[in-house]
Amino acid sequence: MNVHKFVLPEIIFGNHTISQIGDCCLRLGASNVFIVSDEGILEAGWLDKVVESCEEAGLKYTTFTEITINPKDYEVEKGREVYLESQCDAVIGVGGGSTIDAAKAIALLSTNEGHIRDYEGVDKIKHPLPPQIMVPTTAGSGSEVSPFSIILNTEERKKMTIISKSLIPDIAIVDPETLVTKSTHLTVSTGIDVLTHGIESYISLAATPLTDVHAKNAISLVGKYLRSSVASQYNKEAKTHMAMASLQAGIAFSNAILGAVHAMSHAVGGRYPILHGDINSILLPHVMEYNLLANPEKFADIAYLLGLKDHNISNMEAGKIAIHLVNELIEDIGAPQKLSELQVDDSEIAEMSYTALHDACMLTNPRDVTVSVIEQLFRKAW
Ligand SMILES: [Fe+2]
How much is the pLDDT for 1? Predict the structure, then answer.
């Protein structure tokens, strides 16, 4: 029997759970917390809620909001300086995937010397990290449960993937209420990211029965609730199901890793300040088409999870319908379908393909790829 390894933080899920953050910090022994967030979360009022809860718990705190999308190496290094000056003893991240990835990278640098780029790859961390509590506000990245932090190397214009069990937060607080302040564009983009996490982790070479159950539920929830979540900012039922979808997709990919969509998406995102989910939306159907041959049975499952009822067809036929259903969802919610729409320059295809081939996510893609296969997939997506 193969060995299965499965890791998870403590998870607190439910409306208004954001107000439990102060107590969570106390339980972890913190007394002076470093709160990483961004301007959008500050404006939406969620940072105030976190601060209020910390004050009620009698904690000292410092806020740091200098994080932008696709977080940069110099931003997390600035975060370390402020953390050390403030003599904090725990890190809270409140925001989307960029903010949470940055918060985890700051936690890493707070006890480990050098540049953030020294930690690119698997298990490079040498010293234990301070306690980490993450509050996702976008129902997308899954970073609140994952062992990854994706940080932009601004010199080389590439996204670095840092992987370590030390980056799995101690506590993830998922409060679906926070999703009501999200813009429609962000709901579309992060929703497709969740679908991509579900699909890529389900067909990953590292998938196990422990990850499949979460990946399947995430795919099914996205199929049922992403459209209504995009249609209304205040549809709480849809938001709650999308928060669960995001969490379960995060649990699945934290343990099964991802595939070619993410490897290619990281290569584009390293060069252009485009939302990660927007790039995934364009690449996902093309990569699915390429990967279908590797696992028609699982592709057929995806079709049934997305609503196919006819069981009298072959797995290959059902798998093709899965791709059609994904395309239909992308079209219905108005997600981007061509890289040229996002002003990506096609003269960079060769370089981006080389970068994608060497991304850690490519190792678990179910079908073998080469640079020329990636180039063809990029050209199809143009
Ligand atoms: Fe993603």
Answer: 54
Q: Hey, which CATH number is domain 183-381, 1.10.275.10, 3.90.1300.10, 1.20.1090.10, 1.10.287.3510?
A: 1.20.1090.10
| 121 and 71 Cβ atoms separated by less than 8 Å | no
Closest by Cα among 295, 216, 302 to 251: 216
Q: Which residues contact 308 (CB under 8 A, 6 or more apart)?
A: 318, 321, 322, 325
Which secondary structure element, helix H or strand E, spans residue 247, and what is its range? helix 236-256
Question: CA-CA distance, 303 to 112, in Å (whole number)?
Answer: 45
Ligand 1 mean position, distance from CA 262 (Å): 6
The per-residue DSSP string of 123-182 comes to: S---SPPPPEEEEESSS---TTT-SEEEEEETTTTEEEEEE-GGGS-SEEEE-GGGGGG-
Q: What confidence score (pLDDT) does residue 232 get?
A: 94
Mean pLDDT, the chain cut into blocks of 10 residues (382 residues total): 84 95 97 94 91 97 93 96 97 94 98 96 94 89 92 90 94 92 91 97 97 98 97 93 96 96 94 92 98 98 97 96 98 95 88 93 96 97 92
Is the entire prediction scored with pTM above 0.70? yes
Ligand 1 centre distance from Cα of residue 194 (Å) = 7
Query: From the CA of 274, how far away is ligand 1's center (Å)?
Result: 13
How remote is the CA of residue 85 from the centroid of ligand 1, in Å? Answer: 33
| CATH 1.20.1090.10 intervals, the chain | 183-381
Query: What is the pLDDT at residue 346?
Result: 85
What is the 202 CA–ligand 1 centroid distance (Å)? 14
CATH number for the 10-178 domain, one of 3.40.50.1970, 3.20.20.70, 3.60.15.10, 3.40.1740.10? 3.40.50.1970
| DSSP letter assigned to residue 363 | G
Name the amino acid, one letter, at 62.
Answer: T
